[in-house]
Every structure is written in C-alpha cells, then in structure tokens.
Amino acid sequence: MDQFRLDAAAMHQYTDTAAEVAARLERAATSVHAAADIERLTADLGTVGADFIASFITILTGHGETLTVASALVGGYGDALTQHTVTAAELDGDAAAAIGRTGGRLA
C-alpha cells in the first residue's frame, strides 16, 4: 500500500458513534452507582442480608468503575480520531497550497 486515504465522512460517523457509546457507558455507570444504595438495601434486607449487601456493593462498585473507565477510553479514542482527522485535513490543505504555489510542478 503506497497511499493513505482518509474518509472524512466515515471518520465523522465513527467519532459520533464513539461519543454516543461513551455517553451510554457513563449513563450505565451512573445507574450502577445509584443501585449501590447501602441505606436502602439495609432497610429492605435488614441485618440478615448484611453479607449479601457487602458483596453486592463490592461487585456493583467494581462494575461501575469499569463502565466509567470504558466510557473514558471510548471517548478518548473518539477524541483522538477527531484530532487525527483535523490534522490530516490541515496537512492536505498545506500540501495543496504548496503544490498550488509551484504551479503543480514538483521541485
């Protein structure tokens, strides 16, 4: 492969999708953290469910943290692709301007 082609429309669609996925992961993390309501669980299950509550909270907390990290990673990847697209467009513009200044002749 001696040529690189950047499909700006595809990159835009991909970064939009990445942003949506990141937002959904963050909403899921928020929901998981809301489910880890110790006071409510204790009121519902009492001291009989104390061991269950402790295990459940530990699992939910880990799951919530994983979702938060996943959201940050997907969002960061989308941001990196956006910056790559912008930089590629700037470089293409600079190259086109340089070629235009030389009248299309290679020096």
The span between the termini is 25 Å
The overall strand count is 0
Q: Strand-and-helix sequence, N→C?
A: HHH
How many helical stretches?
Answer: 3
Rounded to the nearest angstrom, the radius of gyration is 24 Å
Describe the structure.
The chain is mainly α and 107 residues long. It contains three helices and no strands. Helix 1 packs antiparallel against helix 3 (50-101). The protein is rod-shaped. The protein starts with 7 loop residues before the first helix and ends in a 6-residue tail after the last helix.
Quick overview of this protein structure:
This protein is mostly helical and 107 residues long.
What are the defining features of this structure?
single chain; 107 residues; mainly alpha; rod-shaped
What is the topological layout?
Blueprint: H1 8-35, H2 38-45, H3 50-101
Helix pairs in contact: 1-3
